[in-house]
Fold this protein.
Amino acid sequence: MENQRPKQKRSFKFIIRFFQIIFTLIFVFLASFFITLSLNAENPKEHFFEVTKEIFSLLEDDKKSEAEKNSIAIEKVSSAEEKKSVPVTSSRDEKNLGLSGRIDRIMAVEDAVKEKEKNIRPYVLLEDMPNYLVQAIIAVEDVRFYSHSGYDLNSIFRATAHNVESGEIEEGASTITQQLAKNLFLTQEQSFTRKLEELFLAMNIEKHFSKNKILELYLNTIYFGSNFYGVESAAEGYFGKKPKELTLAESAMLAGLPNAPSVYSPYVNFLLAKKRQLVVINAMLKNKAISSRDAENARIEEIVLVRE
């Protein structure tokens, strides 16, 4: 009997510790996000009430008819060629989804992702992509990708501190998994509830899919600028190549585009695209994904685009 009491004590302490960690994570995320959002608000107090109103509006939306709540529509982003389009979420139907519909989607995210995957065309397997491209994306978008569980507290702290110091939102803290969740299910709206939903979706995606599968889905859905969605469309559209044929220099240029595709597209501003490419190459070198010689060769390699 005496031996059982220490075990019960340890179990009780473990449960308390577990909930402390959970509540700490939620508090840190909410605090960081509110600080970051408030930088864009002229009146932080008014901004807080707007967020509260938004949360209650979701509860109101939940009272809508079952047909409206469960309608998750898929739209295709039109481009010059049909094969260069991937599914995105309709803003109108996303608003009509309601709170219970959003919770259902989070809980059944595995089936939801698989359903979305069926509509992604073209689709390239990770094994058919150059390792350079994969390493470049990780180095510049989410260096701790293989060690986090869908969110990265280090990135949240770093981005919040940077944004507070600069007085505006310059740096994001979204992981690759969070970006995938947004690309598949959410709109581009910058709001507290959307960001929170993105976090929960990402955490659940991590539970059901391997890291390599998440990367594969991400690279097939991310926007690379100039109306190119997914790695195959971008590789063909910019360089006239299949993804597996890309060089280190070309991979680094592509990896730099998702950060601001309409700005860094080489068809929009080649000089900015080149500068961004150098940032990616340096990040890969810092991450020990490439050697110094590889980095130097990539920096001086001539980039030949399909369209001049």
